[in-house]
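ASSEMBLY PREDICTION REQUEST
Request ID: AP-0331
Submitted by: J.K., bench scientist
Number of chains: two
Total residues: 457
Priority: normal
Notes: Please return the full assembly, not individual chains.
Input sequences:
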Amino acid sequence: MMARPVYVTGIGMTPFRKKYDMNLSEIAQEAVVAALRDAGFDRNRVEAVYSGSAWGGSLLGQRILRDLGMTGVPLVNIENACSSGSSALHLGWTAVAQGMYDAVLVIGSEKLSRFGSGAIPLEDDDHEVRLGQIMPAVYAMRAQRYFYEYGGTPADLAQVAVKNRRHAGFNENALFRDPITVEEVLASRPVADPLTLLMCCPKADGAAALLITSERYRNSRSVEVRASRITSGVFEDGIVDTTVDEITVRCAKETYESAGIGPEDVDVAEVHDAFASAEVFYYEALGFCKQGEGLDLVRSGATAIGGRLPVNPSGGLLSKGHPLGATGVAQIVEIVEQLRGEAGARQVEGAKVGLTHCTGGGIAGMDHGACTMHVLVR
Amino acid sequence: MSRIGTLYSFSRVHTPHKLYSAPYIVGYVDFPEGLRVFGQIRANYEDLRIGMKVATSACGFGEGEDAVLAYCFVPAGKE
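STATUS: Completed
Returned structure:
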């Protein structure tokens, strides 16, 4: 396929919060208006809209756009669990790359406060779920096996949470910003051993939006989206190594090939740290270090702001919060700010190549239901 | 299928699925036929080790009208 260059020309997001009193469409409208304002773009010139949300309900995109007077355009609502927003971006990117449109709006939004406390519900038609499976336990068992194979302790995992919290302290859109210590992480309430509460991402409400354009509407602050890849989970019920995130390994290979770069070229990354252990697995799956060396990378400080390859400078899902459908779009907002040099106190100096990675969903027999990755270049 | 398998990994759950009360233990068990099976484990958590042999058993879950009998795993020799 001959693809045209695609740019993020406008970004907008709401702060991620425990609970908004506004309804979901109102939250999302704030992000849409912010993205259009950031681009200095007339809302009537948006040619198509892709709206991602896991639990936003029927016709969310129409509900968001009706009150903004942006009706009558091609509009698709997308559900792909935690990858809903990044899947919406993938569809918008593809449409612009293929020459269908010159300006599309991508929205990711979620209101998880409707569920109250506890882990997000999984579908009961899954036999593991009926037997008591919960998402934190999936990651906890991978972490236990990782310790068995490669060594490591819960205190090592706690360092991921401490790092991302420190980053979030510089991000006014993050849900949790007060610094935490390894001791506090370990002493927090157990969720699924060895994971404690502060090693698990908090549910949140929030929204993010992007104006995606072709060269035609590119401006001096536009950032190119060099690659956009999506894939779905492979069913495996045999004896597989769960410390290797197969879906991320596969998606990363495609993404690096598509972008014409390797992991060594990445200056800054936003990865799907739904749990502290997940971030470590993704270092390895994304090729940031060798298999089994993920905890060494955390301990070395390489993935903190100021290190060789800062990961989750926004605070990540662990501290910024995880409003599922909004997450993948907010990751792009962070990388665009980094590549524009507009990230303020959390700026990664000289960042020119940024990567986002967003997985989606828990389903028996698969690492995850979906995985999306993007490479942005300035 | 073999009744005895090897514990691949496990975790003690403190935030339960709505059908169960915490804490309970879940795990993956590898069987010689090349199959990995998820299930609950009835054991002292401190006694569990990755790589140990576990046996398939039958366990009661829930109470009253919700009570069901389902497969579960127990340390081999303790069934």
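REVIEWER COMMENTS: The CA atoms of residues 147 and 268 of chain A lie 27 Å apart.
SIGN-OFF: pending second reviewer
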